[in-house]
Amino acid sequence: MHKIFYILFSLSLVIPAKGNILRVGKTAGCKTIQQAIVMVSNGDTILVEAGFYSEKNIAIRKKIILMGSGYPVLDGDNKFEIISIYSDNVVVTGFKLQHTGRSSMDDIAAIKIYNGRNVVIQNNIVDDGFFGIYAEGAHHCKITGNRLTAYHSGEEESGNGIHCWKSDSMEITNNTIRGHRDGIYFEFVTNSLISCNISEHNIRYGLHFMFSHNNSYLHNIFRFNGAGVAVMYTHGVKMTGNSFENNWGDASYGLLLKEISDSYIEGNKFIKNTTGIMMEGGTRITMIKNTFQNNGWALKIQASSISNKINNNNFIANTFDVGTNGSLSLNDFTNNYWDKYDGYDINRDGKGDVPYHPVSLYSMIVERNPPSMLLFRSFIVSLMDKTEKVLPGITPENLKDDQPLMKPLPL
User: Fold this and answer.
1) Whether 169 contacts 147, CB under 8 Å
2) How far is CA 85 from the centre of its chain?
3) Residue 166's Cα: distance from chain center in Å?
4) d(CA 204, CA 109)
5) Strands (DSSP E) along 49-130, which ranges?
6) Which region among 9-18, 98-107, 136-145, 341-350 has the lowest average model confidence (pLDDT)?
7) Among the listed ranges 17-26, 115-124, 125-134, 173-182, which one has the minimum average pLDDT value?
8) Which value, to the nearest 10 degrees, does the dihedral of the CA atoms of residues 337, 343, 349, 351 take?
């Protein structure tokens, strides 16, 4: 009992609860959630006892708190959307929602917000959902502390874990998403925060967002996803303190940046990805204090990317540090640590006295002819790369770090 009142008090800090509490369950006067919604008024709380509730398409059109005790189970019977929210100032917390319907035409979700404001979806379990939690035209809503799991193997059979469309000022925090098409999906979403989530083992992307400006992505973990994280056609992105781990595949990467501008990427870890970052059409991106470790390619930066700053990063134990498809680079590589750098520091200022060229001739050959990877670590490859460093003719001569660091940064 004390725990229930503590949770209600916590929720009241978000949305003040001034009304009555109506109980639902076998031992309560009210037996169904939908009946309780009809009976309560704005500001009331519905407290649902543990148990199995065979209710479909629960529609909330009042400003209420819907709260489960002991994770009551709501089952969509593989046909229905479970909870549909049409009101502002709604809280849904403490439920297990399972077996939503599936459709190739409709985005059926376990919980769906329709044009709502100040809605809180908190501490729920979504098991075997099509779309997990879906926000459409939402503003100032919080999706926090939820666990979402799906089990389908094909993209066409699964929706996204947390899906936000045409929304603003959203907070997506402390959720765990697994097995969906995309873990988190943003489209036309602005001024929002994605923080401290774990998105793993998703079919396509751990995070996928398009046309979503001025958002922050902080301290998330994206690992073992089909193709990592994709960021497309967006400006004003801030990505800080995230981990991109173990995203492997022919066309996989930790982070894809496509047509991105005026963004900031700091303090992230790119570990054991086919490609740490793939940048295409990136402009005015500041990339500092990141660690690239044990990747195939640490960074692929296409010739269409200009005016970017890649400074004070660590490049450690990558097969290739940097790859590009052009002969000219218009980006600034300065003060990075490269473990392959074999230069010297006579004046002992901590910076190499000769520039480091991170693009190897062999990496350009492999980029154009992948089967040539069979020659990796052969004597002829080492000879080619050393010759190219002395007399560069194919690799972009101006893609270089004039002040490479002699020791890794303590990031």
Assistant:
1) no
2) 25
3) 18
4) 19
5) 52-53, 58-60, 65-68, 73-75, 83-85, 91-93, 96-98, 109-114, 120-122, 125-127
6) 9-18
7) 17-26
8) -30
What 3-state class would DSSP assign to 223?
Answer: strand
Helix H or strand E encompassing 3: helix 2-12
Amino acid at 235: H
304/64 Cα distance (integer angstroms): 51
Residue 268 CA to its chain's centroid (Å): 12
Closest CA to 333 of 286, 295, 366, 292: 286
Q: How many Cβ atoms from other residues are within 10 Å of residue 204's Cβ?
A: 18
**Pair 271, 243: CB distance under 8 Å:** yes
Taking the model in full, what pTM does it have? Answer: 0.89
* Greatest extent of the chain over all pairs of C-alpha atoms, in Å: 86
- How large is the average pLDDT for residues 163-179? 98
pLDDT value at 34 more than 50? yes
Residues 190-246: pLDDT tens digits? 999 999 999 999 999 999 999 999 999 999 999 999 888 999 999 999 999 999 999
Radius of gyration of the chain (CA): 25
